Amino acid sequence: MPASATLRSVPLLDLRPIHEPIRAEILASLTRVVDSQRFILGEDVALLEQELAAYCQVEHAVTCGSGSDALFLALLAAGVRHGDRVATTPFTFFASAGAIVRAGAVPVFVDIDPATYNMDPRQLEESARRVPRIKAVMPVHLYGGAADMDPILDIARRREWRVIGDAAQSIGAEYKGRGVAAFGDVNCFSFFPTKNLGGMGEGGLLTTSDAATAKRLAGLRVHGSHVRYYHEEVGINSRLDTLQAAILRVKLKHLRAWTGQRQANARQYGELLGAGTALVALPQPAVYQTGHVYNQFVVRCAQRDALRAYLTDHGVGSEVYYPLPLHQQSCFQDLGYRAGDFPISEKAAREVLALPVYPGLSRDDLTYVAELLTKFQG
Length: 378
Known about the structure:
Order of helices and strands: HHHEHEHEHEHEEEEEHEEHHEEHHEH
Number of strands: 14
CATH architecture of the largest domain: 3-Layer(aba) Sandwich
Mean pLDDT: 96
Radius of gyration: 21 Å
CATH topology of the largest domain: Aspartate Aminotransferase, domain 2
Structural class: alpha/beta
CATH class of the largest domain: Alpha Beta
Helix content: 25-40%
Distance between the termini: 19 Å
């Protein structure tokens, strides 16, 4: 591979390539909301929910204030209460386990598949035999790739667990040809600005095909109320701002194209590097991940920190998602887990590194990053 002639700047994420072409449309949508004076649960929120339900191929979509709130609301709607246990993985963003604790339940951590970074169904089966009072399971569709849902759903059905998908990074991702929103009782998404469909602030989404669940979620996000000032249960305040909904409606029209660009960028990394280099392993999606959407393109390197420093020195942005598994976080020490309990998660935390994959990257950008990976000597 020829050496690059000059130092380039390739940030981990640059939103300008997707925002600049639609800037005028976004500003017009914001002006419309300002003129309407409906800033909370306005018309754009209702329309966005309809459009997202169609996009995700589910019957119902309920927006809320954040992806973290979506997880919490889903747990409340599932009947998870104080002392219940909810299985999830320790290799995920904090909100997965944080929502479980907020609901009064106890996280039961399950190690991951080393290829996909998602919950290992064999480890889930072992936890099901060993741990009593599990009420629900929360598989995480990490980095834009689906968890192996068929065995997870089978385990849950046999034990009458609820299944809540943490799909914060995976809107549009597919499992065996179907969108991840089709699997489980409720799926939760985030509109944090770095997501494939990101707002310009916080926002979240819950999807379900059950009308009663959708109605309950819609009430729980407004303090447990369906009629103003009358409360059937205690919920929270987690309504999506109409301004965010208007922005997201504009961006949703472009999401398939942007996802296609992410997927094309991932393929180009593969073309340039094959399966990887002597020191850097590229992701290899599982056969059931028929629609990986690459919210992150994550490589593995035993000398990860040295690789990250090398990339930084050459103008390339990167990030570690995630450097410390949840069972080793100080706030969860009372759960009784120790280092070594989840060796696959712990090894991944030492080795993973996310590279630029956003829409708008040029072939030259990708070639430059690939050249650096090839030259890296540790």
